[in-house]
Amino acid sequence: MRNTHGTIYVGIDVSKDKLAVAIAGGERGDEVLSLGTFENTPASVDKLLKKLSGRGDISACYEAGPTGYGLYRQVRAAGCPGKLLSPSRRRACVEHVRQTLGISERRACRVLGQHRSTQRKPPLGREDGKRCPDPTFPVSA
């Protein structure tokens, strides 16, 4: 989706039923504008992408997860580059910024928009390192 107006950065918060969308221009200090929430359907995503393509090139980022991967495939099929962000990659990003710039964890989290509790308390797995069994599988005592 090429245009001469510059790049539009689109952030999408993904849930099963709704998408919360915000956009920002490509220049430092550009205003971030919330577009509100939309249904999480292929038709509404196509409509949103067509509407935004008139404003400039689109670069999108969205969460990884069960619903995020479907959105990722749809946005890529529309010709828009984007990034799929998982919690572990966001934690790694904060750590990289801390080491590269020599700033505190608190400041890196604030600048990158990562809640500090997710940085300080990574998820714990099982002690034996195995994945949890299928919750639909009956477990006998």
Structural class: alpha/beta
> What is the rounded distance between the termini?
57 Å
Number-wise, the strands total 5
β-strand amount: 15-25%
- What would you call the shape? globular
The pLDDT mean sits at 76
- Uncertain runs are none
In sequence order, what are the helices and strands, one letter per element? EEEHEHEHHH
Per DSSP, the total helix count is 5
What is the gyration radius calculated from CA atoms? 18 Å
Across the major sheet, the strand order is 3-2-1-4-5
Q: What characterizes the major β-sheet? A: 5 strands, mixed
Helix content: 25-40%
Overview of the structural elements:
The protein has 141 residues and is an alpha/beta fold. It is built from five helices and five strands. A five-stranded mixed sheet has the order 3-2-1-4-5. The mean pLDDT is 76. The chain is globular and about 45 Å long. A hairpin with a 3-residue loop joins β1 and β2. The longest helix is centred in the middle third of the chain and has 15 residues.
Main traits of this protein?
single chain, alpha/beta, five-stranded mixed sheet, 5 helices, globular
Explain briefly what this protein structure is:
By secondary structure, the chain is of the alpha/beta class. The protein contains five helices and five strands.
